[in-house]
């Protein structure tokens, strides 16, 4: 008889936690196995609990190159992946849209990103993968790859918007709404 395992939720760290500003270390081939598969499951559970579309390892305090994403589309199946050691192969086009970030709760900003990205990396079993993503899925993969590179979405804002966002964060910290 099986049982339902209650997965532990990981703690999402908030800006300016130092791990968010560091370049994550790549995974070696020897690291792939059941422990990483559990980490992926826990990251997906944490992301879903927080109502996110993507979550990178640095956002849960792990300075490694990994992200998970689950983007629903109007047509076709959801785009759901765990990507280890993400590497941008090609980016093209342009889209402008509102972005949020689980490490910046309550903060949304208009950010310019590429419309299409070809990304390569490895899946949770250590197998090579290559993704050709567009629209919201491309935005999500670019945002999460930025996290693996120690880049936060504040870095993608104009200086004025960045300053306004930092002021909002200070206000939220004072009211206790920002940990």
What can you tell me about this protein's structure?
It is built from three helices and seven strands; from the N terminus they run H-E-E-E-E-E-E-E-H-H. It is α+β, with helices and mostly antiparallel strands and 179 residues long. It is globular and about 45 Å long. Mean pLDDT is 92; it is low at 1-5.
Helix-strand topology string: HEEEEEEEHH
Task: Provide the gyration radius in Å.
Answer: 16 Å
Report the oligomer. Answer: single chain
Q: What's the number of extended β-strand segments?
A: 7
Give the low-pLDDT segments: 1-5
The main pleated sheet reads as:
5 strands, antiparallel
- Determine the strand fraction and express it as a percent band: 25-35%
Mean pLDDT: 92
Number of domains: 1
CATH superfamily: Peptide deformylase
Task: Detail the topology: elements first, then pairings.
Blueprint lengths: L33 H16 L4 E3 L9 E6 L7 E14 L2 E6 L7 E6 L2 E7 L5 E7 H14 L10 H16 L5
Antiparallel strand pairs: 1-2, 2-3, 3-6, 4-5, 6-7
Report a brief summary of the structure.
With 179 residues, this protein is an alpha+beta fold. It has helices at 34-49, 135-148, 159-174; strands at residues 54-56, 66-71, 79-92, 95-100, 108-113, 116-122, 128-134.
Describe the structure using short key phrases.
179 residues, alpha+beta, Peptide Deformylase, five-stranded antiparallel beta sheet, two-stranded antiparallel sheet, 7 strands
């Amino acid at each position: 008889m099986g049982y339902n395992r209650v997965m532990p939720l990981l703690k999402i760290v908030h800006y300016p936690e130092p791990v968010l500003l560091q370049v994550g270390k790549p995974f070696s081939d020897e690291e792939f196995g059941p422990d990483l598969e559990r980490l992926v499951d826990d990251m997906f559970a944490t992301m879903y609990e927080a109502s996110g579309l993507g979550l990178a390892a640095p956002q849960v305090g792990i300075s490694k190159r990994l992200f998970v994403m689950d983007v629903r589309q109007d047509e076709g199946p959801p785009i759901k992946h765990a990507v280890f050691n993400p590497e941008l192969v090609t980016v093209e086009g342009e889209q402008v849209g509102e972005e949020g970030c689980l490490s910046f709760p309550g903060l949304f900003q208009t950010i310019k990103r590429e419309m299409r990205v070809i990304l390569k990396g490895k899946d949770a079993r250590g197998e090579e993968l290559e993704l050709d993503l567009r629209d919201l899925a491309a935005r999500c993969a670019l945002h999460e790859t930025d996290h693996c590179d120690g880049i936060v979405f504040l870095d993608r804002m104009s200086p004025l918007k960045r300053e306004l966002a930092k002021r909002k964060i200070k206000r939220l910290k004072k009211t206790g709404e920002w940990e």
